[in-house]
Amino acid sequence: MKQTIGQFAVLSALLTNPLAASPVISAVPAPKLQQSSAAENIRLNQLGFPPGAKKIAVILAVDDATGFSVVDAQTGKQVFTGKLQRADEKTWSGKSSWIAEFSRLSRPGNYYLEVAGAARSHPFRIQQEVYRDLAAASLTAFYFQRASSALGEEHAGIWARAAGHPDNQVQVHASAATASRPTGSLISASKGWYDAGDYNKYVVNSGITMGTLMSAFERFPQYFVAQALDIPEAGNGLPDILDEVQYNLEWLAAMQDPVDGGVYHKLTTASFEGMVAADQARAQRYVVQKTTAATLDFAAVMAQAARVYRPFQPAQSSQYLRAAQSAWQWAQENPDIRYRQSELNKHFDPDIGTGTYGDELLDDERIWAAAELLISTGDSRFGQVLENTDNQYLLPSWSQVKWLGLYSLLLHRDALQRVNSDSLDALEQQLLTAAAQLRTSSHSSPYRVAIGSDPHLFVWGSNAVAANQGILFIEAYRLSGDASFLRSAQDTLDYLLGRNATGYSFVTGFGHHTPQHPHHRLAAARPDLPPLPGFLVGGPNPGQQDDCEYPSDVADESYSDTQCSYASNEIAINWNAPLAYLANGLNALQENARDVD
Q1: Among the ranges given (8-12, 123-127, 256-260), the one the predictor scored with the smallest mean pLDDT
Q2: What's the alpha-carbon Rg for the chain, to the nearest Å?
């Protein structure tokens, strides 16, 4: 069923207080909730669970309680009782914890969990496709990030806004000047997505974002063909996820110099603009220095796009492939041009002070680009680049994209005649071993989730680390059929939606205790509205680089729901992409299997 943005506004309100808002249960007096601190001592997925999923909650500070019950929120009757299992591990802040498992409860309905008649959880649902709306919203979030276009009320609802940043008069920065495009010359590079809480557009970060979204489509094409998003292009014959990706591809194509094939690192203002509406942010914008990382990421994305769009837009597909090959050639001729902003500012004006996305290691970009070009062209020279590649598993991030390409090789292995079968077997084994180790590590976490096993994983954007772990589990499940990997993917989504040390569901508008003050200029410009829905905030980060006030220095609790906290509470496209893969992937697999066990 098509979900509109206007409906998301209603959905957001319902999820904030479903006992009061849901017409299904409003006929019965709502149970009296305990203070929020009591509810938040029960950490669980605040949306709910598919009927066949593993269902657990983590209980903090229950003292002598030994049992729990699950109560039907409509009738007030107990429908499940169980014993609490004390966790061997304390939380990193020293709290004792207990596990409440109620996996055998599969009857659809609205429920809450109660411990010894005292602490009561936020309400949650059990139903098929419980993540359908979340899955759609995680993709529609990209529509909200569109530059150069007005967002009409028909699609954006209460978040409608004027167009910002037409980007049809972008200056070539001195660092990017060539004979054909001298300093100060103007180019057009409109459309695309705002990268994060700021209004700039960065090729490197767009690279992993588009690669992740197109990979999700390649894994679950039938699901995405059937999915309807409320975006202007819906119904045009192209799957809606690919319509949204193409909006950014059109900008990305304009970031390539048509003369030599090199790709500008970013399109940016000289410094970050204020917390104002997009149409009020009018500082001059520049394309800045061509770099090897940006050009290789561009080559990988365009090569993947060439095959993904070929069934729908064959002529456009050919253009994408030519652009990818031209970029590859430039990178071959310029293999070591790195983006070093402080050095650049010593030689060129104006100084640039926005996000760097600097990357000193380029082998992973080269592997990603070669893998995507090999799959899309069959040209053996790209296979030669992949020979003797170190296949150690490394979780993808914007600065480590090797396994985006290796995931693709494994997906398309049947069509790869020029890749040694033993090499692909070794890749598969590396992936499965990494997933198995991560699955095992979750047992040492009081919250029973992989990211909770190691405080070093709580970096800037830790929620994207978790979401990419979820993708690894889905990939492992697809390769092995081992349902325990799928349960680990479910655990990951449970973590993002509330089963964590903060008690927050980290996705705006989805859950009962969600971010209200994200570092997001589009949200800050309209403080009278709820935050735009479907965005994954960065998450706990003990680095606390923003100098805001945090409630805790403990790694998994170091999160501040404040606008100033760009180190823990910003949004970013490369964080939403793995959320979208995880939520839509689980939804697609549940549609097929109807049971994760």
Answers
A1: 8-12
A2: 24
- Distance separating alpha carbons of residues 158 and 509, to the nearest angstrom: 14
Beta strands in 438-515 (DSSP E): none
Among 204, 381, 389, smallest CA distance to 300 is for 204
DSSP string, 24-36: TTTTSPPPPP--H
Catalytic (active-site) positions? 198, 519, 561, 570
> Coil, strand, or helix at residue 481?
coil
Is 86 within 8 Å of 126 (Cβ atoms)? no
* Position 170 confidence tier, pLDDT thresholds 50, 70, 90: very high
Count CA atoms closer than 13 A to 315's CA, side-chain side.
0
Write out pLDDT tens, residues 529-561: 999 999 999 999 999 999 999 999 999 999 999
In angstroms, the Cα distances linking 7 to 13, 154, 184, 441, 509 are: 10, 11, 45, 39, 12
Helices (H) and strands (E) in the chain, counts: 19, 15
Beta strands per DSSP E along 486-526: none
Euclidean distance between CA atoms 419 and 371, whole angstroms: 10
Inform me whether the pLDDT recorded for 317 exceeds 70: yes
Per DSSP, 382 falls in state H
- State the sign of the Cα–Cα–Cα–Cα dihedral 229, 234, 239, 242: negative
What tens digit of pLDDT does each residue of 151-161 get? 999 999 999 99
List of residues 6+ apart from 15 with CB closer than 8 A: 46, 47, 509, 510, 511, 512, 514
- The conformational region for residue 534 under phi > 0 = left, psi -120 to 50 = alpha, else beta, is left
Helix (H, G, I), strand (E, B) or coil at 151: strand
The answer to whether 366 touches 404, Cβ cutoff 8 Å, is: no
Please write the tens of the pLDDT for every residue from 392-413. Answer: 999 999 999 999 999 999 999 9
Q: What is the pTM of this model?
A: 0.93
Confidence of residue 132 (pLDDT cuts 50, 70, 90): very high
Mean pLDDT of 484-504: 98
Query: How do residues 461-473 score in pLDDT, each as one tens digit?
Result: 999 999 999 999 9
Pairing label, strands 264-269, 201-202: antiparallel
Cβ contacts of 152 within 8 Å, gap of 6 or more: 160, 232
Single-letter amino acid, residue 431: L
Cα–Cα distance list, 374 to 32, 408, 528 (Å): 61, 10, 50
CA distances from residue 166 to 12, 152, 190, 256, 453 in whole angstroms, order as listed: 31, 16, 6, 18, 45
For residues 241 and 224, the answer to whether their CB atoms sit within 8 Å is yes
Does the structure show a pLDDT above 80 at 22? no
Helices (H), 46-131: none
DSSP state of 460: T
Q: Which residue has the tokens 């593993």?
A: 54
Give the list of residues 6+ apart from residue 528 with CB closer than 8 angstroms, or none. none
Q: What confidence score (pLDDT) does residue 25 get?
A: 22
Q: Is the pLDDT of residue 180 over 90?
A: yes
What is the pairing mode between strands 109-115 and 119-120?
antiparallel
3-state SS record for 179-242: CCCCCCCEECCCCCECCECCCCEEHHHHHHHHHHHHHHHHHCHHHHHHCCCCCCCCCCCCCHHH
- Model confidence band, residue 118 (pLDDT cutoffs 50, 70, 90): low
